[in-house]
Amino acid sequence: MLTSSAGGMSLLDELIACVHYRILLCMDEGALSSMGSCSHSLHQIARSQALWQRLAMCRDRLAAARFLGSFSPDARRPVVTTEGPSPYLPCSRFVPSSMHSGASGALNGEGTIDWRDVCRHLNKCMAERPWEEVPEASNGRSAALWTDLTDDGNGADDGAPNEPPPTGATLLGSQSPHVFWIGGDRLLGLAGGYSPDVVGGSAIHPLREIYLMDLPDISDSHATLTRPDLSVKKLDCGTANGRLPHGHPSVNGCACDFDALRSTIFFFGGGTPHAEVYHATSALRLEGWDGANPTAQWQVVSSPGSIESDEIPLARQGVKGTVYCDEFVIFGGRLQGGRCTNDVWSLNLEGDSFSSPPTLPWRRLDCDGQAPSPRVWHSACQAVHGQWFIYGGSTWQFEEPAEPHDFRSLFVLHIAERRWSSLAAASPTRPPWAVAACLLPLGCCQLLLLGGTLPHKLGATGLNAHSLRHWRSWYNRLDEPWVFDLRSGEWTPRGAAVALPSDVRDAVAVAERREQCRRRTSGRGVGGEGRNSRRFWCEDPKK
């Protein structure tokens, strides 16, 4: 009998194992998990962590990094292709100190990644729902809690609305800020833009601040969640040898996303439609973010061709972008002058290098299926495996369109397939049409939608003295988010309580005691339309 040098295994057995291994790589996580033990060889290979590791890494290179965190060496290792003949890959290990509750189930007691569990979490048909609905018999408690992570008691909110923000504030953020999870408990934040007008305004002044934020450890369920300590450090990111004196020209309304494998945030566009709109492409390089002294440096990204030859996307703002494998994909936005678009462009990242400013080509993508209508300030997020979800936005009109529109439809761009599709809601219950709302993936089987503005509620006259008196009605409440379930295809409203600052909490306690005394004497309930009623009483009214 022919034998190999690896543990006395026959060449025939090794060949069978390799064939079985390639068969298994063609199956998805659900089929692998439900596979029987009719073949002893298949059964043994299916138990191998190397198979599940390769399956997780090959299908979507960023999925494992987004699940495990970019600090994990396993998530950052070179991509393993299916061309390797040996099914016996070593299962990597890493120190799990930078990995917390989101992926804790994927670790066994020794800190080794359970890649089979990772694949389960990356499969929407098998993953657990991060936010299950709270039963009606929950005594009115909310399953979510808003809490401040930094104290604003140093004057950040004390100035008049039309005055510049104070320079001594710990953390600045206004219109169109961006926050990225870099890994572990570490975030990077860009402040966005600042409007000098009392409410909104077309003139946006950029805020150039970039922050390193280390989240507090609140893993202890008994810890106080109100204003935990947040470590904030302002970063000096350079000027790219003078080519970017203030970083990316305008973070307001730009497309951007974090590439965990390249440790880089890519940017495109941004600006204001009535001032200047940009078509610049930039990169913010991150180094040492798994240590005590992280750095970030701006870098110019050049592209061959010209706008006139349709080789570079037109300047735009209110645009969205996402990184998938070796692409930075952008969609939509508003051009100079106000016209909105629904085109899709891709920046090829394969030639990207830290050593010198890269030259990366853009190209327009022709996608099959029904694309969303032209829009600006839409919501977008990528879950896993190149599914990019688009919701909301508008052409920035002040009235409801007379004709039927698709701004309340949930669209999906399947990036690898270059194909659009839409997800029809299984029930008529849907969130209100919103512009500039936040859409986030909850694992791979739920989407979270919160906030947003409602410019179409202003009416044909737009901003005037009357509408300014009712400006609160233009915005969705943050304590009333919505969740879309990718399995059932249903939108459901949720409630999120608010952890109040200590001074406000004490005032509320006094008010509650006074109200209890008043109710004992008058028999009346809590009511009123006072100015601060929403601030104090923010429990979900539906429960």
From TrEMBL:
Family annotation (SUPFAM superfamilies): Kelch motif
Coiled coil: none
Gene3D superfamilies membership: Kelch-type beta propeller (2.120.10.80)
UniProt region (Disordered), positions on chain: 146-173
Pfam families reported for this sequence: Kelch_KLHDC2_KLHL20_DRC7 (PF24681)
Entry protein name: RING finger protein B
Classification lineage: Eukaryota, Sar, Alveolata, Dinophyceae, Suessiales
